[in-house]
Design brief:
With 84 residues, this protein is mainly α. The protein is built from 3 helices and 2 strands. A hairpin with a 2-residue loop joins strand 1 and strand 2. Helix 1 packs across helix 2.
C-alpha cells in the first residue's frame, strides 16, 4: 500500500527542487523519494553524529591523560548529567 507524505516548502526551495528533478529527468515525487531512499541506505553503518575534533587528539592534556574523542564525549556526558 502506498502512503502519502505532504511536505511544506518555502517557494524558493520548491522551485529549486522542481528544477533539479527536471534536470535529472524525474518528476518531483520520484526525486524526493530517491533522496529519502539514498539517505536511508547510506545511514546504515554510518554514525551521523561525528565528533569533529579528531585532528586534535593528543594535543590537549586532560585530567586523565591526552584528550581523545572518547574521553571528551565522556566528560561532556558527565557534565550534562551533573546539570540534571
Amino acid at each position: 500500500m502506498t502512503k502519502i507524505l505532504t511536505v511544506r516548502l518555502p517557494a524558493g526551495l520548491h522551485d529549486k527542487a522542481e528544477a533539479r528533478a527536471m534536470r535529472l529527468g524525474l518528476d518531483r515525487a520520484k526525486y524526493v523519494r530517491s533522496l529519502i531512499e539514498d539517505d536511508l541506505s547510506g545511514a546504515r553503518g554510518k554514525n551521523p553524529r561525528v565528533f569533529a575534533s579528531e585532528d586534535l587528539v593528543g594535543l590537549y592534556q586532560g585530567d586523565t591523560g591526552p584528550a581523545t574523542n572518547a574521553s571528551a564525549r565522556e566528560r561532556l556526558r558527565a557534565r550534562a548529567a551533573a546539570r540534571r
